[in-house]
Amino acid sequence: MEFDQVIKNRRSIRKFHQQAVETEKITAILDCARLCQSAKNRQPWRFMVLTEDRKNRVADIMLNLFEQNDVELHGYMNSSRNSANIIKNAPVLILVFIPKDEEWIQSDLLSVGAAIEHICLKAVNEGLGSVWIADTVYTREGICEELGRTDDLLVSGIAVGYADEQPSPRPRKTLEEIILK
């Protein structure tokens, strides 16, 4: 697919067919992320591909946030429930980790953001849908413990699969609205 068309076709997909995603497509997506630019060429990202039970355990950790009576949820934390259900519906969850390194956190997060965008665009090019999930932040310690990654910082997740929806483009600001003078 032509690059401009890939960008125009990218949507946040939240409903997926249950069809398994071919290993070759996931490998191509991760290889595309690997080639992303990064601050000082640190390439801080580490990716974990989860399916079936392991993927659902991550979603359950997110859902358990709502079962704790002593936790008061604020603002966007409530969207974690929807994100957990998206994860359960998706055939694949890619988790993105970085090393815990306070000195590089800002640069590493910017680098990971670029890598996530590479993943989402490559998914479109592979005929797949994806959605970037930031709500893992509210339960990242529990997720890292479950997966044996306590020395890493969980930055995000990306749900991937064959789209079972075709959302219309979301409204975008005009160039005049985003260019400062």
Q: How are the elements arranged and paired?
A:
Blueprint: H1 3-9, H2 23-34, E1 46-50, H3 52-64, H4 79-89, E2 92-99, H5 105-125, E3 129-133, H6 140-147, E4 152-161, H7 175-178
Helix pairs in contact: 2-5, 3-4, 3-6
Quick overview:
With 181 residues, the protein is an alpha+beta fold.
Q: What class would the helix/strand composition place it in?
A: alpha+beta
Unreliable runs = none
Q: Numbering strands along the chain, what is their spatial order in the largest sheet?
A: 1-2-4-3
Percent strand equals 15-25%
What is CATH's topology name? NADH Oxidase
Q: Say how many strands there are.
A: 4
How big is the Rg?
17 Å
Helical percentage: 40-55%
CATH architecture: 3-Layer(aba) Sandwich
- The overall number of domains is 1
What is the H level of CATH, i.e. the homologous superfamily? NADH Oxidase
Average pLDDT figure: 94
Count the DSSP helices.
7
Largest sheet: 4 strands, antiparallel
What is the name of the CATH class? Alpha Beta
End-to-end Cα distance: 35 Å
Domain Nitroreductase: 7-162
InterPro entries: Nitroreductase, Nitroreductase-like
Protein name: Nitroreductase family protein
Pfam families: Nitroreductase
Please give a structural write-up.
The protein is globular. Strands 1-2-4-3 form a four-stranded antiparallel sheet, with helices on both faces. The chain contains seven helices and four strands. The protein has one domain (3-166): NADH Oxidase, CATH 3.40.109.10. It has helices spanning 3-9, 23-34, 52-64, 79-89, 105-125, 140-147, 175-178, and strands at residues 46-50, 92-99, 129-133, 152-161. It is an alpha+beta fold. This is Nitroreductase family protein. Keywords: Oxidoreductase. Pfam families: Nitroreductase. It comes from Amedibacillus hominis.
